[in-house]
Amino acid sequence: MGARGRGGSLLPALAQRKRFSTVFGFGENAGTTGPGGVWSLAAVLCRTMATIRIGLFAAITLLLAPLAACSPDETAEAEIRAALTQWMADFNDGTADKVCELFAPDLRSNYRGQPERNFDELCALLQKSLKDEARSFTYALDIKEIIVAGDMAAVRLVWTLTIRSEGGAGTAIVSREPGLDIFRKQPDGSWKVARFLAFEED
Fold first, then answer.
1. Residue 77's CB: how many other CB atoms inside 10 A?
2. Residue 20 CA to chain centroid, in angstroms?
3. Do residue 153 and residue 192 come from a single domain?
4. Strand partners, 177
5. Could you tell me if 32 and 119 lie in one domain?
6. Is the same domain home to 64 and 76?
7. Could you tell me the pTM of the whole model?
8. Structural domain of residue 50, as residue ranges?
9. Alpha carbons 111 and 198: distance in angstroms, whole number
10. Integer Cα distance of 157 and 199 in angstroms
11. Which residues, including other chains, have CB under 8 Å from residue 73's CB and lie 6 or more apart?
12. Gap between the Cα atoms of 150 and 103, Å rounded
């Protein structure tokens, strides 16, 4: 009677351990052997943690991929494009107080057939053009290439200038002006033209 009692109380426990070992993949021996079950459970936990670490690493990699793809040179190129586009918009809108913002204080500009100009001289010329009541000036921009090297950048581009008489009288004058702009990154992080060469196509 006592033996049957002990045997009866052990059967459910053994069955439960067998189910536990089957669920976690330990095998029958692991479920009934104390040290083997402990080591098998440790192995499962290690595999689970490894899987979690791999998943977290993959998720972080996916999140950081767009940032890694944007190199410093690509960021500089985008900022330079934006600066040139903004200058074109300001000039075409006649915003005289902003047309000088593209240029660095130490600017040197050379346009074929004209004298070399510094920042103040070029700024005065641009503002005078925008205040011309007899004619209107508009620019179209075509960027051919941007090469960035550290805090310097070279931009090969073509400006197309259209001059019209006020009121639309007469034929518009169109001038294509290929050139090379040398940008330098300023202390405040902005990119400005420090040197440029340009000429009018024949």
1. 19
2. 53
3. yes
4. 159
5. no
6. no
7. 0.65
8. 2-69
9. 5
10. 11
11. 148
12. 19
Residues facing 108 on adjacent strands = 118, 195
pLDDT at 157 over 60: yes
HSE toward the beta carbon, residue 190, CA cutoff 13 A: 13
Count of CA atoms in the C-beta half-sphere (13 A) of 82? 8
More confident residue, 201 or 13: 201
Average pLDDT over residues 162-169: 83
| Mean pLDDT, rounded, of the chain | 79
Using CA atoms, how far apart are residues 53 and 100, in angstroms rounded to an integer? 54
SS (H, E, C) the chain: CHHHHHHHHHHHHHHHHHHHHHHCCCCHHHHHCHHHHHHHHHHHHHHHHHHHHHHHHHHHHHHHHHHHHCCHHHHHHHHHHHHHHHHHHHHHCCCCCCCCCCEEEEEEEEECCCCCEEHHHHHHHHHHHHCCCCEEEEEEEEEEEEEEECCEEEEEEEEEEEEEECCCCCCCEEEEEEEEEEEEECCCCCEEEEEEEECCCC
> Dihedral sign, CA of 123, 176, 85, 90?
positive
Task: Assess whether 17 and 85 both reside in one domain.
Answer: no
Torsion sign (Cα): 49, 51, 52, 53: positive
